[in-house]
Amino acid sequence: MILTTPEVVSRNWGEEITVVKTRTHCGKLLLRKKGTKGGFQLHVKEESHYLYTGKLLLRAVVNGQVSETVVEAGQAWTVPPLFVHQEEALEDSILFEVSDPTAGDRYAIEPDPGGLVSMSDVEAMQILWRLRDAFTLRAEDCDLLAQQIWARGLASFTA
Fold first, then answer.
1. What pLDDT is recorded for position 157?
2. Do 138 and 96 share a domain, yes or no?
3. Is the N end or the C end of the chain the one with fewer CB atoms within 10 Å?
4. What pLDDT is attached to residue 66?
5. Domains held by the chain: number
6. In terms of residue numbers, what domain contains 30?
7. Threshold 0.70, pTM exceeds
């Protein structure tokens, strides 16, 4: 087991607390203030969310049209890669977010209310290539581990 110190970053909409970041995944706690919203944006990575408390308005581009969905505590959703989206806090809200550890992959459709920088098309391609390479390495790690388990048995890893 490895203990870590969470990283807290102030945002225009509240706080972003990164509780874990490894080469394969990242877990965050997002504290959003009522009446604030994030950027209308897309990411290269996939993000999954769980709304622990509060209420959000999710905006997304679906079939070329902006759609809106109200999400309440207890609901979860996933934002696929390259999916245009935005979150607006209708109440003070606490969310859990899990994604791969890619950072700096935000592409602004509209200027960010908090002034976050948008990546360029070239930066987006570079991130996609790094992700491809990381997934290839992860797949190789999993294959190697499976081979070791097959050869030695799972019990040998718990001793």
1. 59
2. no
3. N
4. 92
5. 2
6. 7-119
7. yes
Verify that 157 and 126 share a domain, yes or no.
yes
Q: What is the CATH number of the domain that holds 99?
A: 2.60.120.10
> How far is the C-alpha of 52 from the C-alpha of 72, rounded, in Å?
8
Instruction: Summarize pLDDT for 47-83 with one digit per residue, the tens.
Output: 999 999 999 999 999 888 999 999 999 999 999 988 8
In a domain, 1, yes or no: no
Rounded Cα gap, residues 143 and 114, in angstroms? 42
Return the pLDDT at 70: 98
Intervals of the chain under pLDDT 50 = none
Residues 52 and 112 in one domain: yes
Q: Do 112 and 159 belong to one domain?
A: no
